[in-house]
Amino acid sequence: MNTTQQGTVTTTLKDHVAYIQFAHPAHNAMPGAQLARLAQAIKDAGQNPDAKVIVLSSGGDRTFCAGASFDELVAIQDIETGKAFFMGFANVINAMRTCPKFIIGRVQGKAVGGGVGLASATDFCVSTQYASVKLSELAIGIGPFVVGPAVEHKIGHSAFTAMSIDAADWRSAQWAKEKGLFAEVFDNAADMDEYIDTLAQKLVKYSPEAMAALKKVFWAGTENWNTLLPERAAISGRLVLSDFTKDFIKRFKS
Fold first, then answer.
1. Does residue 130 contact residue 96 with C-beta atoms inside 8 Å?
2. CA distance 74 to 144
3. Which helix (H) or strand (E) holds 110?
4. Residue ranges per domain, the chain?
5. What is the pLDDT of residues 41-99, one digit of tens each?
6. Cα–Cα dist 228/231, whole Å
7. Which superfamily is assigned to 3-188 in CATH?
8. Listed residue (27, 17, 33) closest to 9, CA to CA
């Protein structure tokens, strides 16, 4: 598998802001290797004294992240491999919540499944009007087990339950703003980027110690996620082996 098929993760440091971008030609779906690189990039930026704030984004125009890579999902043959794959999202979410720097999310387009989880795990997330969201996992026979804690932490139990059960329908960016996933929704990417850059430059002037302490407050009550998310990954790893899920993915890919 070449680098393009594995996806890319790049970090650009500018004016004390670490811009981390992931990209994949399959609508920014995330293979396991790419998830591992993303988790490491977030950890590295968190430990870099020159980076005061992190901006997380993806490549392309209208899709932020299509979730898990179906190519890898359909190839899973045993529970341990399944758990290891879903641990990719668990590791990214845990890296984001424990990172001592504020993470600003830039969501330019649709977010599905794991993409909703990534947006939820940012500390402050903005989007364009094209950023509709969907938790599609139940429709393919799994469930939003790994990303669920991050989504529920961000939008609340009721909204998370509704998204999880109504797995086939999209929610608009405005709906996501009303539920607290997005802080602001912009008409276009240019306006969104101007807002993000302005906010980031304000934040780099603030006390790093104060921001790190405040982030711990934001994520209070999630200290058990180092064990919870692996437990959830094991559930997904078992369910992905079901005939229901394998048949669904094969039909989707064909």
1. no
2. 17
3. strand 110-112
4. 3-188
5. 999 999 999 999 999 999 999 999 999 888 888 889 999 999 999 999 999 999 999 99
6. 5
7. 2-enoyl-CoA Hydratase; Chain A, domain 1 (3.90.226.10)
8. 33
